[in-house]
Amino acid sequence: GLMNRLSSQSSALTPCGGGYISATGMKARSWVPRRRLSPPRVTWLALVSLLSGLLTSSQAKVFSRCELAKELHRMGLDGFRGYELADWVCLAYFTSGFNTAAVDHEADGSTNNGLFQINSRKWCRNLSLDSLNLCKMYCSDLLTPDLKNAVVCVMKIVSGPKGLGYW
Protein backbone atom coordinates (compact mmCIF):
# COMPACT_ATOMS: atom_id res chain seq x y z
CA GLY A 1 0.00 0.00 0.00
CA LEU A 2 0.91 3.63 0.21
CA MET A 3 2.77 3.27 3.51
CA ASN A 4 5.04 0.64 1.91
CA ARG A 5 5.74 3.03 -0.96
CA LEU A 6 6.42 5.84 1.51
CA SER A 7 8.86 3.75 3.51
CA SER A 8 10.59 2.48 0.37
CA GLN A 9 11.34 6.01 -0.84
CA SER A 10 15.02 6.85 -0.81
CA SER A 11 16.10 9.64 1.46
CA ALA A 12 17.28 11.84 -1.44
CA LEU A 13 15.90 15.34 -0.98
CA THR A 14 15.12 17.95 -3.59
CA PRO A 15 15.06 21.70 -2.93
CA CYS A 16 11.56 23.13 -2.97
CA GLY A 17 10.91 26.79 -2.19
CA GLY A 18 13.39 27.02 0.66
CA GLY A 19 12.57 23.57 2.07
CA TYR A 20 13.28 20.04 0.92
CA ILE A 21 10.97 17.31 -0.30
CA SER A 22 11.74 13.64 -0.96
CA ALA A 23 10.88 13.01 -4.58
CA THR A 24 12.67 9.91 -5.79
CA GLY A 25 10.86 6.87 -7.05
CA MET A 26 7.44 8.49 -7.51
CA LYS A 27 5.28 6.63 -10.03
CA ALA A 28 1.70 7.39 -11.03
CA ARG A 29 -0.97 5.07 -9.71
CA SER A 30 -3.02 3.37 -12.40
CA TRP A 31 -6.77 3.80 -12.22
CA VAL A 32 -8.06 0.35 -13.19
CA PRO A 33 -11.68 -0.67 -12.53
CA ARG A 34 -11.89 -3.33 -9.84
CA ARG A 35 -14.73 -5.33 -11.38
CA ARG A 36 -16.85 -5.58 -14.50
CA LEU A 37 -19.78 -3.14 -14.48
CA SER A 38 -23.26 -3.89 -15.82
CA PRO A 39 -24.67 -1.57 -18.56
CA PRO A 40 -27.13 0.31 -16.27
CA ARG A 41 -24.37 0.87 -13.73
CA VAL A 42 -21.97 2.04 -16.46
CA THR A 43 -24.61 4.50 -17.70
CA TRP A 44 -25.19 5.81 -14.17
CA LEU A 45 -21.47 6.17 -13.46
CA ALA A 46 -20.94 7.88 -16.82
CA LEU A 47 -23.70 10.38 -16.01
CA VAL A 48 -22.34 11.04 -12.52
CA SER A 49 -18.81 11.44 -13.93
CA LEU A 50 -20.02 13.80 -16.64
CA LEU A 51 -21.95 15.95 -14.17
CA SER A 52 -19.04 15.91 -11.75
CA GLY A 53 -16.71 16.97 -14.55
CA LEU A 54 -19.02 19.77 -15.65
CA LEU A 55 -19.36 21.07 -12.11
CA THR A 56 -15.64 21.01 -11.37
CA SER A 57 -13.86 21.42 -14.70
CA SER A 58 -13.64 25.18 -14.34
CA GLN A 59 -12.29 24.71 -10.83
CA ALA A 60 -9.76 21.92 -11.45
CA LYS A 61 -6.16 22.56 -10.50
CA VAL A 62 -3.14 20.33 -10.83
CA PHE A 63 -0.53 21.62 -8.40
CA SER A 64 3.20 21.45 -8.96
CA ARG A 65 5.07 19.64 -6.20
CA CYS A 66 6.62 22.82 -4.80
CA GLU A 67 3.42 24.84 -5.10
CA LEU A 68 1.52 22.17 -3.16
CA ALA A 69 4.24 21.90 -0.51
CA LYS A 70 4.09 25.66 0.09
CA GLU A 71 0.29 25.62 0.33
CA LEU A 72 0.18 22.63 2.71
CA HIS A 73 2.88 24.23 4.87
CA ARG A 74 0.89 27.48 4.97
CA MET A 75 -2.20 25.52 6.06
CA GLY A 76 -0.39 23.85 8.96
CA LEU A 77 0.11 20.28 7.74
CA ASP A 78 3.91 20.25 8.17
CA GLY A 79 4.41 18.32 11.42
CA PHE A 80 0.68 17.71 12.01
CA ARG A 81 0.31 14.49 14.03
CA GLY A 82 4.01 13.81 13.42
CA TYR A 83 3.78 13.71 9.62
CA GLU A 84 6.27 15.76 7.65
CA LEU A 85 5.45 17.87 4.62
CA ALA A 86 7.08 15.24 2.39
CA ASP A 87 4.55 12.65 3.67
CA TRP A 88 1.61 14.87 2.64
CA VAL A 89 3.09 15.70 -0.76
CA CYS A 90 3.80 12.01 -1.39
CA LEU A 91 0.24 11.10 -0.37
CA ALA A 92 -1.22 13.69 -2.76
CA TYR A 93 1.05 12.51 -5.57
CA PHE A 94 0.24 8.80 -5.25
CA THR A 95 -3.50 9.28 -4.71
CA SER A 96 -4.40 12.03 -7.22
CA GLY A 97 -1.30 13.11 -9.12
CA PHE A 98 -1.69 16.53 -7.41
CA ASN A 99 -5.10 16.98 -9.13
CA THR A 100 -7.76 18.65 -6.97
CA ALA A 101 -10.57 17.43 -9.25
CA ALA A 102 -9.58 13.74 -9.30
CA VAL A 103 -12.51 11.37 -8.71
CA ASP A 104 -12.05 7.59 -8.58
CA HIS A 105 -15.14 5.36 -8.62
CA GLU A 106 -15.10 2.29 -6.36
CA ALA A 107 -16.96 -0.99 -6.98
CA ASP A 108 -19.23 -0.35 -3.97
CA GLY A 109 -20.56 2.86 -5.55
CA SER A 110 -18.49 5.18 -3.39
CA THR A 111 -16.03 7.68 -4.78
CA ASN A 112 -12.56 8.83 -3.77
CA ASN A 113 -12.44 12.58 -4.09
CA GLY A 114 -9.95 15.36 -4.63
CA LEU A 115 -6.28 15.83 -3.91
CA PHE A 116 -6.17 13.22 -1.12
CA GLN A 117 -8.84 10.90 -2.61
CA ILE A 118 -11.13 11.06 0.42
CA ASN A 119 -13.80 8.34 0.29
CA SER A 120 -17.51 9.17 0.21
CA ARG A 121 -18.55 6.06 2.13
CA LYS A 122 -17.20 7.45 5.40
CA TRP A 123 -15.86 10.99 5.13
CA CYS A 124 -17.98 13.14 2.80
CA ARG A 125 -21.47 13.14 1.29
CA ASN A 126 -22.30 12.41 -2.35
CA LEU A 127 -25.81 13.13 -3.54
CA SER A 128 -26.27 9.52 -4.61
CA LEU A 129 -24.89 7.61 -1.62
CA ASP A 130 -25.59 7.36 2.07
CA SER A 131 -22.51 8.25 4.08
CA LEU A 132 -21.33 8.65 7.64
CA ASN A 133 -20.08 12.08 6.45
CA LEU A 134 -17.59 12.37 9.31
CA CYS A 135 -16.02 15.49 7.76
CA LYS A 136 -19.48 17.15 7.56
CA MET A 137 -19.15 18.31 3.94
CA TYR A 138 -20.17 17.42 0.42
CA CYS A 139 -17.60 15.50 -1.59
CA SER A 140 -17.74 18.25 -4.23
CA ASP A 141 -16.25 20.58 -1.57
CA LEU A 142 -13.07 18.49 -1.86
CA LEU A 143 -12.70 19.05 -5.61
CA THR A 144 -11.72 22.73 -5.67
CA PRO A 145 -8.31 24.45 -5.85
CA ASP A 146 -9.07 25.97 -2.44
CA LEU A 147 -7.63 23.24 -0.21
CA LYS A 148 -9.28 24.40 3.03
CA ASN A 149 -11.95 21.66 3.08
CA ALA A 150 -9.54 18.95 1.97
CA VAL A 151 -7.05 19.92 4.69
CA VAL A 152 -9.74 20.08 7.39
CA CYS A 153 -10.98 16.62 6.40
CA VAL A 154 -7.53 15.05 6.05
CA MET A 155 -6.62 16.38 9.52
CA LYS A 156 -9.71 14.67 10.91
CA ILE A 157 -8.83 11.41 9.14
CA VAL A 158 -5.21 11.24 10.34
CA SER A 159 -6.28 12.14 13.87
CA GLY A 160 -7.96 8.73 14.00
CA PRO A 161 -6.25 5.52 15.10
CA LYS A 162 -4.98 4.58 11.62
CA GLY A 163 -3.31 7.92 10.90
CA LEU A 164 -1.89 7.97 7.38
CA GLY A 165 -2.42 4.20 7.35
CA TYR A 166 -6.03 4.96 6.35
CA TRP A 167 -4.77 5.27 2.79
UniProtKB/TrEMBL annotation:
<dbReference type="InterPro" id="IPR001916">
    <property type="entry name" value="Glyco_hydro_22"/>
</dbReference>
<dbReference type="InterPro" id="IPR000974">
    <property type="entry name" value="Glyco_hydro_22_lys"/>
</dbReference>
<comment type="subunit">
    <text>Interacts with ASTL.</text>
</comment>
<dbReference type="GO" id="GO:0036126">
    <property type="term" value="C:sperm flagellum"/>
</dbReference>
<dbReference type="GO" id="GO:0035036">
    <property type="term" value="P:sperm-egg recognition"/>
</dbReference>
<keyword id="KW-1015">Disulfide bond</keyword>
<dbReference type="GO" id="GO:0003796">
    <property type="term" value="F:lysozyme activity"/>
</dbReference>
<comment type="similarity">
    <text>Belongs to the glycosyl hydrolase 22 family.</text>
</comment>
<feature type="domain" description="Glycosyl hydrolases family 22 (GH22)">
    <location>
        <begin position="135"/>
        <end position="153"/>
    </location>
</feature>
<dbReference type="GO" id="GO:0043159">
    <property type="term" value="C:acrosomal matrix"/>
</dbReference>
<dbReference type="Pfam" id="PF00062">
    <property type="entry name" value="Lys"/>
</dbReference>
<dbReference type="GO" id="GO:0002080">
    <property type="term" value="C:acrosomal membrane"/>
</dbReference>
<comment type="function">
    <text>Sperm surface membrane protein that may be involved in sperm-egg plasma membrane adhesion and fusion during fertilization. It could be a potential receptor for the egg oligosaccharide residue N-acetylglucosamine, which is present in the extracellular matrix over the egg plasma membrane. The processed form has no detectable bacteriolytic activity in vitro.</text>
</comment>
<protein>
    <recommendedName>
        <fullName>Sperm acrosome membrane-associated protein 3</fullName>
    </recommendedName>
</protein>
<dbReference type="InterPro" id="IPR023346">
    <property type="entry name" value="Lysozyme-like_dom_sf"/>
</dbReference>
<dbReference type="GO" id="GO:0007342">
    <property type="term" value="P:fusion of sperm to egg plasma membrane involved in single fertilization"/>
</dbReference>
<dbReference type="InterPro" id="IPR019799">
    <property type="entry name" value="Glyco_hydro_22_CS"/>
</dbReference>
